[in-house]
Write a structure and sequence with these properties.
It is built from 15 helices and 19 strands. The chain is α+β, with helices and mostly antiparallel strands. The protein folds into five domains: about 50 residues, no CATH class; about 240 residues, Rossmann fold (3-Layer(aba) Sandwich); about 100 residues; about 60 residues, no CATH class; about 80 residues, no CATH class.
């Protein structure tokens, strides 16, 4: 059966069941649903809820049904004003509102879709007070009802800048409690005062769905109807939401939909009951079965109708359980997929890290291989240089030997003959017999002293020992030629020995140049607070009662004030010590500040202003510490 046909059939059934009801009462309703808020997130259900409620008011025979959707401030106020005229001569007047509501300073407001509410003071200009809506129903004679599905969690509360002007100004979450000022007035909230109502996940909110199921039952007292609404909402929300009704009525039964006129049931009415049952059975909705039971509360077909209602409840529960199982399965699959994705991502990360590690290890192996190749090349070059140096030294020695032999030979040729003694007998002189003249042979030149054949590390160590002997080096005796300390000592020797240039590599000629110096070459550098004594810088001495200052002058020593007697008693017997004279050669002093002089085994030097000298570090050349400048 199509939706249109079902609706038409339900209309026919309602008209049939209410045909005998009293129609003298005038009933009017105003329905407003706001979903499309312009300055807050849109709500899904209020417009649908309002349309469903308006349709029900029309179906149960309300004389006037004014329905408005997504209304702004001006349209909202105009709709209330027009409904006030419609309710002027009515017996029952109902206002239904779905949307956002808010309580400010104890006043409840219904919020149009164009409200901004940047401040709590804007509510009086941009929202509709609940009191105004209630006042529009005052002319109704028998029953006045305001139904508010407007306790949803309100976004305006979070973003509203509270411009407090008094100590009691406040903005509350949801709507506040209200007591009607006129009799026969009921105000129904979707949730208790100050609490929020659920907007729902289905086609309607839980509150409106319960209203559609219970409020329009023919002949059902409105108080019982709201009680059923309350029970259904509490059950469907697992006690999270509880509707609340304010106001009171008298003892008479008051229903929104009049009860059908009770007629004596004749035997021929069974055919009508059967026909009505067939129509309702074709619809198959819960609302249709309830209407049928209101008309036919007992009998065979009433029992069948109740069984159909129970079957619908079972089907709904089965559908809910099926949906829950499907959702649980969906969640399980999603969780498994997320876990698979996480494991795959972790494995990909491990693979990437492993590849990076392998690449780094290969790069390190390549670097080490290249470094080893470079060391082998340098070693080969060093061996070649050493061999070339040995060859050069051997050739030089051979050349010196050759020149020495040539000089010796030339000396033999140019020296005068030796004067021997003449036999007197040969000259006719009287001579002693047995005496003969002898010629003294010339003295042969002594062989040249062989040159030291040194190379490599041994040559470097020999050069450092000689530099230390002549006062130009104070570091370690090793085979490191490229250190800054070694280069500095070589430059100092070249400077003070008046050599042309420092050698780039160690050689025998440089070693021999150092060995040729029998005395100290690099001078001592003593500062103003030191004097030279036996080839060393020693601190100046001053007369008793004086001390030396930074300029090297002896000044009167200043005494330190003695401690008080109380302090001496508390800390023991202590005497003030005289100022200790500054000793540039003090080995216990590790750091010497700028402007002072520091001394070591090879001499002294003044520390520049802004720098400091540190003992125990390489690079001090034995002058009292390495100078470090920032």
């Amino acid at each position: 059966m199509s939706r249109a046909a079902g609706t038409a059939l339900l209309w026919g059934l309602l008209l049939l069941l209410s045909a005998v009801a009293a129609r003298a009462d005038k009933r009017v309703a105003l329905v407003i649903g706001n979903s499309a808020y312009q300055h807050a997130p849109a709500l899904a259900n209020p417009a649908r809820d309002a349309k469903a409620m308006a349709a029900m008011f029309q179906m149960v025979g309300f004389d006037v049904v004014s329905a408005q959707y997504d209304v702004g401030d001006l349209q909202f106020k105009r709709a209330v004003r027009q409904f006030e005229d419609a309710a002027a001569d009515s017996d029952i007047a109902v206002v239904y509102f779905a949307g956002h509501g808010i309580e400010i300073r104890g006043m409840n407001y219904l919020i149009p879709v164009d409200a901004t509410l940047a401040s709590d003071r804007d509510s009086e200009d941009e929202a509709i007070t609940l009191e105004r809506v209630i006042d529009s129903l005052d002319a109704a004679k028998q029953l006045r009802v305001v139904i508010l599905d407007a306790c949803r969690d309100n976004p305006f509360v979070q973003k509203m800048a509270r411009q407090r002007t008094t100590a009691t100004r406040d903005v509350a979450r949801g709507l506040g409690a209200v007591e009607p000022g006129s009799i026969n007035t009921l105000i129904a909230f979707a949730a208790k005062a100050g609490s929020a109502a659920d907007d729902g996940r289905g086609d309607h909110s839980p509150f409106t769905a319960a209203l559609l199921n219970n409020l329009f039952v023919p002949g059902l007292d409105i108080r019982l109807a709201f009680g059923r609404v309350r029970d259904e909402v509490v059950k469907n929300t697992d006690n999270r939401q509880e509707p609340f009704v304010y106001g009171s009525l008298g003892g008479a039964n008051i229903a929104l939909v009049p009860a059908p006129e009770q007629r004596p049931q004749a035997a021929t009415d069974l055919e009508g009951e059967k026909s009505d049952y067939s129509r309702v059975e074709k619809l198959g909705t819960r609302r249709a079965w309830k209407i049928f039971l209101a008309q036919y509360p007992t009998g065979f077909y009433a029992d069948l109708a109740r069984e159909n209602l129970a079957a619908l409840d079972r089907a709904d529960r089965a559908r809910v359980e099926q949906e829950q199982r499907a959702q649980a399965e969906k969640d399980r699959l999603a969780k498994e997929q997320a876990e698979k994705d996480r494991l795959a991502k972790e494995q990909a990360e491990r693979d990437r890290l492993a590849q990076e590690r392998v690449a780094k290890e290969q790069a390190e192996r390549d670097r080490l291989a290249a470094a080893q190749a470079e060391r082998d090349r340098l070693a080969q070059e060093r061996l070649a240089k050493e061999q070339a140096e040995r060859d050069r030294l051997a050739a030089a020695q051979a050349e010196r030997d050759r020149l020495a032999q040539q000089q010796a030979a030339a000396a033999d040729k140019t020296s005068p003959p030796a004067q021997g003694k003449v036999n007197p007998a040969a000259n006719g002189d009287n001579a002693s017999p047995g005496k003969i003249a002898t010629l003294t042979s010339p003295a042969e030149p002594s062989p040249p002293k062989p040159a030291d054949v040194l190379s490599g590390g041994a040559l470097i160590e020999a050069i450092k020992k000689e530099l230390e002997r002549v006062g130009c080096y104070s570091g370690r005796i090793d085979d490191n030629w490229t250190s800054a300390e070694t280069k500095s000592s070589v430059r100092k020797f070249v400077k003070y020995a008046n050599l042309s240039a420092a050698p780039g590599d160690p050689d025998i000629d440089f070693l021999n140049a150092i060995r040729g110096k029998s005395t100290r070459v690099c001078p001592l550098q003593c500062n103003v607070r030191e004097v030279e004594q036996n080839g060393r810088c020693v601190a100046k001495s001053c007369p008793s009662g004086t001390t030396i200052d930074d300029e090297g002058s002896c000044i009167k020593r200043q005494k330190t004030p003695a401690a008080s007697s109380d302090k001496q008693r508390s800390t023991g017997e202590k005497k003030s010590a005289a100022t200790v004279p500054y000793d540039p050669g003090d080995r216990n002093r590790r750091i010497t500040a700028g402007g002072l002089t520091t001394c070591g085994p090879n001499g002294c030097e003044k520390v520049p202003i802004g720098c400091h000298a540190v003992r125990g570090m390489h690079g001090g050349y034995g002058l009292g510490g390495k100078i470090i400048c920032p």
